[in-house]
Amino acid sequence: MKKMAIVGSQWGDEGKGKIVDFLAPQFDYVIRYQGGHNAGHTVYVNGKKVVLHLIPSGILGDKSVNIIGHGVVVEPHALWEEINYLQNQGTKVTPDNLKISLAATVITSYCKIIDQARESKGPLKLGTTGKGIGPAYEDRVSRLGIRIEDLRNLETLKNKLTKNLREKEMLMRDLYKVDYPSVDKEAEELFEMGKKLEPFMTDTFSLLTEAHEKGKSILYEGAQGVLLDIDYGTYPYVTSSHIGLGGMHTGGYVPGGKIDEVMGIVKAYTTRVGEGPFPTEQINAMGELIQQKGNEFGATTGRKRRCGWLDIPSLRYAVQVSHLTSIALTKVDILQGLPELKVCRAYKYQGKTYETSFPGMNLSEVEPIYVDFKPFNDLLKANTTFNDFSPELQTYVNYIQDQLKIPVKFLAYGPDRAQTLQLQ
Ligand code: IMP
Questions:
Q1: Which atom of ligand 1 is nearest to the CA of 241?
Q2: Distance, CA 228 to ligand 1 centroid (Å)?
Q3: What is the pTM of this model?
Q4: 3-state SS assignment for residue 306
Q5: If 102 and its partner were Cys, which of 4, 11, 149, 283 is the partner (CB 3.0–4.6 Å)?
Q6: In Å, how far are 34, 175, 244, 343, 370 from 228, measured between CA atoms?
């Protein structure tokens, strides 16, 4: 397979990092195409926990070239810290295996300050990660953004930041009444970071074109999940980027125009961090139990994740939105031994039954219709095959495949790289 994508199919935190890490050794290039260091991809390698925020998970293998595409928003200090963190624990990170697009947008201090001020002072509390993601995408769309290539020139930085700050200054000084660095200070800091990051800066468009022409394989690594997509997600409780298939084309570049396989990562239940509707949320002892068993804390902010049952109408929607062709079902072990097991098969909404969500459906008004499953007690281990599963687990997996009409190719049953079964 030449081009494959990994996409979160729920509200993020589905375990994408682990699957990318598992697959990356087969790919020549791994590219992040959207989001920023709001993402937290946790991977366990030989029992050691590694959390990646910005750098593609392929960095943990020793074969792939890892790309931060132009659709990503990059906080230079956070990136530099992540490079050091990886190097300090023995991972090779060099300009040969990490490339940052010259056209990626920079998250400035102003972005972060405004994001955090909005979260604490309104007008709308979204429960963002506070990393400046939304304001950086606003910069880009308003055409006042700072780009990675700008970090190489102090004068350019000063000029662009002066324009960038003009409206923002009113927000920070007059509306939110928060402190912010001067243009000179911000420019100098960014310029210092630019010196460190310059060896990694690359024309990733030509790099990918060349890779395609040479028949190299490319893996697109999505962050967050389709239900957080700026256009297809539960607006306004979304992140600010294009998470699904569209984002790969606009923020990553797909030479040749076609991705052979789009694998949706589906956690065997559902979680959400931050504000926003969540139809199958269990605000009860079951939700607590799943939260504890699954150790459901945000990898970036440490916040407790909200937990609930698997939600088929939203997943069907994710399959359609991102043209998913297969599934990796993760954290199946967390459901093992639960006293009950349910899946939402449809929604009741405004007097009608819906099997699929749609943009504009107000998920805070839907009533989930559940199917009960017999809980399973399987203790999964390496080399287990589908036929070894208990009838209860087979029924659960088959139900998901039948409803979504795509195969479950991988099943993950623990955090380690090795705790992944290939079913097909
Ligand atoms: P932002 O991306 O920081 O602007 O946050 C917007 C929403 O997306 C908030 O609800 C966040 O909790 C959520 N979010 C952002 N990144 C992630 C992630 O990697 N996993 C899960 N939720 C995320």
A1: 2
A2: 7
A3: 0.95
A4: strand
A5: 149
A6: 12, 28, 10, 21, 23
